[in-house]
Amino acid sequence: VPNERPIVFVVDDDLAMREALQDLLASVGTEVRVFASTQEFMRAPRPNAPGCLVLDVRLPGASGLSFQEELPRAGVDLPVIFITGHGDIPMTVRAMKAGAVEFLSKPFRDQELLDAIDAAVARHRAQRRESALVAELRQRFAALTQREREVMGLVSAGRVNKQIAAELGISEATVKVHRGQIMRKMQAKSLAQLVRIADTLGLSTPKP
Amino acid sequence: MPRRLSESLVTKPKSDGTQSRPACQPFERPAEVPLREHADLLNLTHDAMFVRDMDTAIKYWNRGAEEMYGWTAQEALGRSALELLKTLSSVPLDEIESQLLRTGRWEGELVHHRRDGTPVVVASRLALQRDEQGRPVAVLATNTDITERKRAEAARQELEEQWRAAFEANPTMYFILDAAGTILSVNPVGAEQLGWRVDELVGQPVLNVFHEADRAFVQGKAEEAFGRPGRVMRWKARKVRKDGTVLWVRESANAVVLRNGPVLLVACEDITERKQTEEALRESEERFRTLVKFSFDVYWESDAQHRFTRQEYSARFDRAPAPGSEIGKTRWEVPYLAPDEEAWGRHRAALDAHVPFRDFELARATPDGGIRHVSVSGLPMFDEAGRFTGYRGVGRDITERKRAEQLTRQVFESASDGMAVIGRDYRYQRVNAVYGRSWKMPAETIIGMHVADLHGTDFFERTVKPSLDRCFAGEQFTFAEWFTTEQGRVYLSVSYTPLRLASERLEAALVITRDLTHHILASEALREAQAALARVNRVTTLGVFAASIAHEVNQPLGAMVMSAGSCARWLAAQPPELEKAQRSLERIARDGKRASEVIDRIRALVMRQPPRRDRVDINQVILDVIAFTRDQMRRNDIALEKTLADGLPRVWGDRVQLQQVILNLIVNAIEAMSGPGDRPRQLVIGAGEADGGVCVEVRDSGPGIAPEIADKLFEPFHTSKAQGIGMGLSISRSIIEAHGGQLWTAPNLPHGAVFRFSLPIEERGP
User: Fold this and answer.
1) Which residues of B702-726 are buried (b: 16+ CB within 10 A; e: fewer)?
2) ipTM, two decimals
3) Cβ separation of A85 and B594 shorter than 8 Å?
4) Inter-chain residue contact B557 with A107, CB threshold 8 Å
5) Is B192 left (phi over 0), alpha (psi -120 to 50) or beta?
C-alpha cells in the first residue's frame, strides 16, 4: 500500500518546539502527533501506518537515547530522528548505532528536518513492505509438510537430489516429487529464488 | 382587855372637873366615872376610838379620833358615825352590822373621811356592847390609821412590779442559780433566747445550756463567784440553744446571800454578733498584716514624737536589726549611712507637718559590714479627736535596685558608644562622656540643651525630630548612614529606644550612636574585593553550565527557525494561509523574547555591577537559575523536584547575588551526584517560610559530607573538586550573611547533603 498517509510522532518537552514542529509539519500537509513525554507517547494509540518518531535527546525521566533502545522491545518499529539543543559526538554515535535515521542539532533548518522525515518515512515504508513479504513467506513455509521442510533446507543449502536421497534415506524420485511440491507451495520460480526465500526466512543451514 | 374595856365603855362616864376638854367627857352617866379613867387612858392612844349606839349616834370620841378625823368630841357626839365619817367599805355595811350582831365583833379595813374630806384608810375593830338583858346597846370602834402603811405597801408592790418587769422584760437574760448550779429562776428573755420556756429551764442544771467545751470553765467561774459574794465576776462562753445552734454570751455574776442561802445572780448578754464582728475584724487585720508582709519588707509604727513603737520584718528581710533594738528611737537616731543632713531635714519637716511621705530612701550598715538601702513610706495617724498620734508605714529593701542603678550608671558612663537620653521636650536629660566628646563639649553642658541647639534647626527638623517622634510613638529602631558634620563625613549607627522610667508612660528616648566610619571604609574595601571574587566565581560557575546555557538558548532559536520555515510555506500556499502565517510569526516573536531573557540572565551574572537592594521574589530567583541549569541536570540523569511554597513574602536583597548562591548550591549538588553508582540521582530545591524569614534548601542524594570536613566546607579555597578553586561556598555564605541570613549544611536522609539558607523578611534591607 504505497500511498498510505504517513504519521509523524514528535516527543519534546519544550512547548515552543512542539508548537513549531506541529506547525511546520502541518504547513507541508503531514499528519503530526506531539507528545511532551515518552510516557504520553507510549499511552497514545498508534495506527498501523507508515511514519517516524522525532525525539528530543533530553527528556525528563528516561533520556531520548535510552528510550530509543527500548522501542523494539515495546514493538515500536518507527524510525527515529533525534533533535537536540546542544549535541555532542558520543551521543550522535550512540544514536546512529542504535539505528537513528538522522541526528539534528538545534537550530536546524526546517528543510533538513523535512528531508529527514521523508527519508525516515521511506525507510519505514520499505520496512513495512519487507515485513509484509516475510510474513507471506512464513505463511507459505507453514503450509509445507515436515518432510518438505527438511528437503527445502537441504536444497537451499546446495545439496543435489542424490545427496538428499541418501541423507534422508529415500529414493531420488521421491526427492524430485518433494522439490516440485516445494517450488509450487513456496511460489518459487527458480532454485535461486527458493534459496533467497530460505535465506529471508532464516532457515538454518545444516552442516555439510 | 378589849373585852373589859368595851364592857366599861357601854356605860356613859361622868364628866370630870380635872378633865377640861369636852372630848374627854363622852359619858353622861355619873355612874360610869371609873370609865373616865379608862377614857383618859384611851386618849393616850393614837388610835381613833369612838362609841356609837345602835342607831350609829356617836356616844364617845377620844383624842385620837379628834386628831385623826379633825372633828372635836363636842362636834362629833350625837352625830351619826356613818354620816360623819362617810364610811366606805369593800364589804356591805349591813353585812358588817349583821356579823357584829351575830358574833359581837368585826375586824376589817374601812375608808373614813376626815373633816376636810380627805380619805383615811383604817384598820377597824368593832366590838358590840350588850346590856344585862343581852340586848345590843353600843358599838366600840377602834380605828388605826393604815393609810401610810397602805401607801408603803403599794409602793413596795410597785417596786416589786418594777423589779419583776425589769427581770422579766429586760432584754438582758437573767438567771438565778443556787449553789448546786440549779436554775432557780430565769427571765423569759433568758429562756426565749435559748429556745426554751421558763418552766422548762427552772430546776435544771444551768451547765446544760452551755457548750460542752465551755462547761468546766463556767463551772469553775461560778464556784469562784460563790466563793466571793458581792464581787462581780465576768466571763465569755458559748451557750447552746434548744435547736443546737451556738451563741456567744458575756455573763456578769454576783453571789448574794438570801434567807434560804447563797444564790448567784447572773446577767447574760448575747455577743454572738459582736464576736463575729470581732472575728471578722481580727481576720481582716491578719489579712492586712499578711498582705503588708508579703508586699513589703518592713512594717513600722511610730509615736507622736516619731519614735518607733513597732517594727515587723518579713522573712525575706535578712540581716534584720535585733528585735526591739530600734524601738524608742527616731529614724535618724538609728545609725545611718545616707542620706545627707539636708535630706533628713526635709524628711523631719514632713513628719512634723504630719503629712504622708513616700519612698524616702536611706541606707544603713548591716551587721556583716555591708550596706542596705531601704525605701520608706508612711501615713500619719490621728485619734478620734483629730490629734496626731504618730505614723505607720512600710519599708522596702531596695539594695538590689540601688546596685542595679549604680551598674546601669557605670554602663552608661563607661560605654564606648555615645549615649543620650532625650525628653519629650527634645531636651537632653542625660548624656555620657563619649557623647559629649563627639560634640567636643563636656556632658554637663549638653544636659538641658535643646536638640536643635546642638544639631542646628534644619538638621533637627529634617532628621532628628522625625526619628525622635517615631521613638516617642513607641518604636525601637536602628539605622546606619552617612552624616555630614563639621568634622567631615561620618558613618553613624544610630539606635532609638523608647524609655518608660517610673510608669507606663513613655517619658524619654535613649539614643545610642556609634561611629562606624573607619569600620565602614574598611568593610567597603572588603566588599569590593568580595564582589570581584564573587564575579569570578559566577563566571567560573557559569562555565560549568556552558552546554546547558547553549541548550536553553538553542531551544527557542530552533523553534524560531522552524516557525520561520512554516510561515514561509503558509504564505506560499495557494491561496496563502495568512492567519496561520501570522500565528507562526507570533511564536517567533515569543520565542525570540524567551531566548533574549536567557541571555539577559546570563549577562547579569557575568556583568560587573554594583549590588542592589530590591524586593526579591525568591521563587522567581530559583526558577531563573533552574532555567539554565536544567539541561545540565538532565545530562547527568538527575531528576529535579521543586517544592516552592506559594505566596512567600519578598525579601530584600540583590537578585544576582542570590542567583549566584543558588547556582553554587546546584553546581555542588550536581557534582556530588555525578560520580559512578546506580543510586537514584535526585535534586530537590525547596523554598518556604520559617522563623519570620524565608528558607531555601537544595538537597542532593550524593554521598553526603564527611563530618570531618563539614567544618571546613565554608572556608575559602576548600575544595573537593579537581577543577574547583574552592570559593563557591565561602562566597555564598558571605553573600547570605550580608543579606542578614545564614547558610548551613545538614545530612540528607537517607543519602546526601542538604544546604539551607535563611533570609530575614524586613521592612528595610539589612
Assistant:
1) bebbeeeeeeebbeeebeeeeebee
2) 0.73
3) no
4) yes
5) alpha
Suggest the residue from B552, B566, B579, B596 to mutate for an interface test with chain A (most A CBs closer than 10 A). Answer: B566
Size of interface A-B (CB pairs under 8 A): 93
Please give the sequence-ordered ranges of beta strands (E in DSSP) within B14-130, or none if there are none: 48-53, 58-61, 88-89, 105-113, 119-130
Instruction: With CB atoms and an 8 Å threshold, state whether B570 touches A27.
Output: yes
A56 to chain B: closest CA residue:
B555
Cis peptide bond prior to A107, omega within 30° of 0: yes
Q: With contacts defined as CB-CB under 8 Å, which chain A residues touch B571?
A: none
User: Residue A135 to residues A75, A76, A141: CA-CA distances in angstroms?
Assistant: 16, 17, 10
Angstrom distance (rounded) from CA B177 to CA B186:
9
Query: What is the rounded distance in angstroms from the CA atom of residue B190 to the CA atom of residue B270?
Result: 10
User: Residue B431: enclosing H or E segment and its boundaries?
Assistant: strand B428-431
Grid coordinates standing for B34? Answer: 371609873
B634 and A59: CB-CB below 8 Å? yes
β-bridge pairing B508-515 and B639-644? unpaired
Closest CA to B515 of B415, B630, B371, B655: B415
C-alpha distance from residue B682 to each of B27, B619, B662 (Å): 169, 19, 16
Cα–Cα nearest to B349, from B332, B371, B328: B332
What is the mean pLDDT of each successive set of 10 residues along chain B, which is 766 residues long? 43 44 46 57 78 88 88 89 87 88 89 89 88 87 84 83 77 84 86 86 89 89 85 88 88 84 86 82 77 78 92 80 86 89 92 91 87 90 87 88 84 86 90 86 88 87 90 88 77 87 74 86 74 72 74 85 92 92 94 87 73 85 85 82 90 87 88 81 91 89 80 67 62 84 86 90 58
Testing the interface with B: which of A15, A18, A23 to mutate, by most B Cβ within 10 A?
A23
Is-cis flag, bond preceding B750, omega within 30?
Answer: yes
Identify whether A45 is preceded by a cis peptide bond (ω within 30 of 0).
no
Q: Which residues of B touch A105 (CB under 8 A)?
A: 554
Flag if B558 and A108 touch (Cβ within 8 Å): yes
**Closest by alpha carbon to B106, among B117, B86, B90?**
B90
Which residues 508-547 of B are in CB contact (within 8 Å) with A? Answer: 547
**How does DSSP classify residue B107?**
E
Question: Which are the contacts of B433, defined by CB distance < 8 A and separation ≥ 6?
Answer: B413, B443
Strands of the sheet containing A102-105, edge to edge, are A31-35, A7-11, A51-56, A80-84, A102-105
Kindly state the helix (H) or strand (E) to which residue B358 belongs, with its residue range: strand B357-365
Nearest by CB to A86, from B547, B591, B639: name it. B547
Tens of pLDDT, residue by residue over A81-94, are 988 766 566 777 77
Q: Rounded to an integer, what distance in angstroms lies between the CA atom of residue B604 and that of residue B169?
A: 114
Residue B1, amino acid: M
Compute φ and ψ for B148, nearest 5 degrees.
-65, -45
State residue B432 phi and psi, 5-degree precision.
-95, 175
Contact B554 A61 (CB under 8 A): no
The HSE-up count of residue B338 (CA atoms within 13 Å, CB side) is 12
pLDDT attached to residue B473:
87
Grid cell locating B355? 503629712
- Nearest residue of A to residue B565, measured between CA atoms: A110
pLDDT, position B694: 92
Contact state of B565 with A110 under an 8 Å Cβ cutoff: yes
Q: What is the pTM of this model?
A: 0.40
Look at B558 and A17 and tell me if their CB atoms are within 8 Å. Answer: yes
